[in-house]
Amino acid sequence: MLRIIKERLHQKYRTLDYPRQNPALSPRYLGRPALTSVECGDCRACFDACPTGALLPGPAGPDGRARTPLLDMGRCIFCGACRDACSKGAFRFSGEHRMAVFQREDLLVSAAPDSQSGASAPAYEPPRPPRDYKLFRRSLKLRQVSAGGCAACEADCNVLGTLAYDLGRFGIEFVASPRHADGLLITGPASAHMRRALLDTWAATPEPRLLVAVGACAISGGLFRDSPQCRNGMDGLQESGGADGPRADVFVPGCPPNPWSILDGLLSLRRQA
């Protein structure tokens, strides 16, 4: 134990002073999408290019012609195919890692009515929680459940325990049992063989409890959406469970989300309602 403490003291400079200091992300990281309002006409190139059906018809212009569609970050895998397919530059990605929201509908990104091609992305405005989570601000224990995931989101959750992120300094820890947890962190599309286990784990988590959905699969099924073996993540669980089904308190989009996006999503529970 003494050796571990000495090593931690020696390497403390490796821990980023987040959130006061922003992380340096790879130039290949796309981040939060920023949409520009353009006239699409009959073009559907972006719809055809999107592998997950993340684009939805948006409001038509004053002349009744189709304009930039909506982008559902809950389905989006941030592959950039829509950006590459659009000849009018309707889709851009801002590089913003903060994307967590509290309501499923807030994952829908639309183009500003007065936006123009080449305009800078709007400044990020952190969402406010719909209720107060002050009970979990000083200590938050989470049980991570991989509901049929590919291990990418799971790996980016695990890395939060390393020195660069040091999740424990925020009083947030992953625990081995749902009975010791304040909530669940879900990854994966809720495959058929994991649905019962996921619901049982949720039932074993004592109240008051919360649920964090991490990644496109956990939110909507991602690339596996509407597969016979997939329950479409939280979208499907809520539809099948009705009022008694588990409902996410925080959604962190991505495929997989950047670790900083996951950390920001967990810290968002500390904002004032």
Question: What labels describe this entry?
Answer:
273 residues; 10 strands; 8 helices; 3-stranded antiparallel β-sheet; 5-stranded parallel β-sheet; Rossmann fold; alpha/beta; single chain
Supply Rg: 20 Å
Shape: globular
CA-to-CA gap between the ends? 40 Å
Largest sheet: 5 strands, parallel
The CATH level-2 architecture of the domain at 134-270 is identified as: 3-Layer(aba) Sandwich
Low-confidence stretches: none
Strand content: 5-15%
CATH class (first level) name of the domain at 134-270: Alpha Beta
Order of helices and strands: HEHEEHEEEHEEHEHHEH
Structural class from helices and strands?
alpha/beta
Describe the structure.
This protein has 273 residues and is α/β, with parallel strands linked by helices. The chain has a domain of 137 residues: Rossmann fold, CATH 3.40.50. Helices cover 23% and strands 13% of the residues. The strands form three sheets. It has a five-stranded parallel sheet with strand order 7-6-8-9-10, with helices on both faces. Strand 6, helix 4 and strand 7 form a beta-alpha-beta unit. The termini are far apart.
